[in-house]
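Chapter review. Work through the record for Colicin V production CvpA before attempting the end-of-chapter questions.
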Amino acid sequence: MPFTPVDWAILAIVALSALISLKRGFVKEALSLVTWIIAGVVAWMFGAGLSGYLVNYIETPSFRVIAACTILFVATLLVGAMINFLIGELIRVTGLSGTDRFLGMVFGAARGGLLVVVAVGLLSLGPVQQDQWWQQSRLVPQFLMVADWSKNLILGMSSKWLASGVSVPAELPFKEHLLPPTMPQEVLGKSSSTK
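C-alpha cells for Colicin V production CvpA:
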C-alpha cells in the first residue's frame, strides 16, 4: 500500500521539526523548551501577585491577572532568549557545534513525532476513524498505537497518584483575584466568633 497524503504530511512534520533543530542545535532547542516551561511556571506562580500592582491601570480583575501573567511570561521568555543566545555563542566558540546540531536533529525528530502523536490522539476522539484518509494511512495506526499507550500510561500514573492519598489543592492560585468573596470578611469573623 503506497503512502497517502496524510502519511507524507506526517513525514513532513517530523522532517521539518528535525531540520529546524538541526539548524538551531540541541542546546538551543532544549533551553528553549526549558524556558517556555519556566515562563509558564513563573506566570502561574507570580501572576496574581503582580496583578495587585496593576490595579491603577486595569479595572477588570480578570484582565489584570491576564495582563500580569502575560508580562511575566514574555519577560521570562526574553531573559531565556538572552541566556540561550549566550550559551549558543559559547558552544560555537568551543567547536562543539557539529555534535550539538546532530543531537538537535534527533531532538527535533522526537519533538515532531510527539507532535504527531498528540495530533493523532486528539483526532481519534472525533469521528475521523470512519474517514477513508484515516483508514488508508500507513503511519496513522503506528502513531495511534503510541498515543493509546501514552494515554493509558498517563491515566495509570494519575490514578495511582490519586489513590496514594495525595490531594489536589483546594484553592486555585488566582481564584481570590477573579471571584468576589461570597461573604464579607467582617461577617465571617462575627459568625466564627459566635459559634
